[in-house]
């Protein structure tokens, strides 16, 4: 176990990333397991030794950065990518979910258009009241469809190509960050909390998977959720 801890210290001194340190430590544990299986060691001295915990840093865009991206002059596929990205910042949907969004997921409840969709990642249902600008984007991509057309609303992109176009849009908008699709989801959460949207409403929209969180979801009715999300309406007009 002392060797395990010493390796941690040495790798930290070499300024290795946490993921890199864990990679080496896991291999060290594997070697010890192999030695036990071969009869070279009576027991694994590293059994129970824990890898380092990785705390993810949430990366999001500021209001000014979002404004510059949404007002960027682009056309063709980049215009579509920009529209999808903006829609994601208004709904919290991940790219994998927004690209399978179909008219079947769009509901009218209490005279308000909402999205009900299960997240692919967690199977937790998201309930998202649509802001005015999000409705405008939906109308743009559904206006020429007939009522029976239940195909996905947005054109399909794989993650690599979507982020490649998004990176170019960020350059055009002079946003000095590596912008990726998942930053839209984080930006929704950041904007919502900073503008006073109740945390339980944010959790319902984002579909976070947690037993305690899920218990709190059940206490919020759809009309209350709509009132909370309406606090973001002022953010959707750019000039």
UniProtKB/TrEMBL annotation:
Keywords of this entry: DNA recombination, DNA-binding
Taxonomy, superkingdom: Bacteria
Presence of the UniProt keyword DNA-binding in the record: yes
GO molecular function, one term: DNA binding
One GO term (biological process): DNA recombination
InterPro entries for this protein: DNA_brk_join_enz, Integrase-like_cat_sf, Integrase_catalytic, Integrase_recombinase_N, Tyrosine_recombinase_XerCD
Domain (Tyr recombinase) ranges: 56-230
Entry keyword annotation includes Nucleotide-binding: no
CDD domains tied to this protein: INTN1_C_like
Family per similarity comment: Belongs to the 'phage' integrase family.
Protein name: Tyr recombinase domain-containing protein
Organism from which the protein derives: Porphyromonas levii
Source taxonomy: Bacteria, Pseudomonadati, Bacteroidota, Bacteroidia, Bacteroidales
